[in-house]
Design brief:
Layout (H helix, E strand, L loop, with lengths): L1 E6 L2 E8 L2 E9 L5 E8 L3 E6 L1 E3 L2 E9 H6 L5 E10 L11 E4 L8 H6 L5 E7 L2 E7 L16 E5 L2 E9 L4 E2 L15
Antiparallel strand pairs: 1-2, 2-3, 3-7, 4-5, 4-8, 6-7, 9-10, 10-11, 11-13, 12-13, 13-14
Length: 189
């Protein structure tokens, strides 16, 4: 049996051969950065791996036990994602902000923790009320946490666009205050 999932960032195909799943992902190598492939199921998702440059495109080939995918809730597959996990973004950050790896670990809600699992790096700014998290944003590209998007605001920090979110000290999402303009510009999208 074979599945094929076409998305805005590329194609993921999965073919079952006995007790193994042969997984492939392909995307154009038009932009710098690390791309990760995820297999989605009704009860969860499984990381397939990082795509690597090969012949002018990015590719992933991986064989995984179907039993492992079942344990992660990704079998049988219902979809797939290709997610920009790291970019050639500048290593510096605006004053008051710092880089944080694995921002999902800051979340107090398990669903958000899982949703942010694919985000490897974000900017963080702590204050008395909790913290602000800035996730990179490029219009037209898939946002890693769509359910959270409506609580954020797009702003420029430094020379990049980010979606800013406010969280309590315990990592619970909150609305941004109207007076919180932290970057150069609040943008309409």
């Amino acid at each position: 049996m074979e599945w094929s999932f076409d998305g805005p960032n590329g194609v993921v195909t999965v073919c079952r051969e006995g007790e193994q799943a042969l997984c492939r992902a392909v995307r154009p190598d038009g932009r710098g950065g690390l791309w990760k492939a995820w297999l989605l199921g009704e009860r969860g998702k499984a990381l397939l791996g990082t795509l690597i440059p090969e012949g002018g495109i990015l590719r992933l080939r991986r064989t995984m036990p179907v039993e492992q995918l079942e344990r992660q809730g990704a079998w049988p597959p219902t979809g797939a994602e290709l997610v920009l996990a790291g970019s050639a973004a500048p290593q510096n950050h605006p004053p008051g902000w710092q880089w944080t790896d694995c921002p999902g670990q800051l979340m107090g809600e398990p669903g958000l923790r899982r949703a942010l699992h694919a985000v490897e790096r974000a900017m963080l700014r702590r204050d008395e009320e909790g913290f602000l998290l800035a996730l990179p944003f490029t219009p037209g590209e898939a946002f890693p946490v769509p359910a959270l998007f409506c609580l954020g605001r797009v702003e420029e920090l430094g020379d990049r666009r980010y979606v800013l979110f406010r969280f309590s000290r315990r990592g619970c999402p909150q609305l941004l205050h109207n007076s919180e303009t932290l970057g150069k510009t609040t943008l309409e999208i």
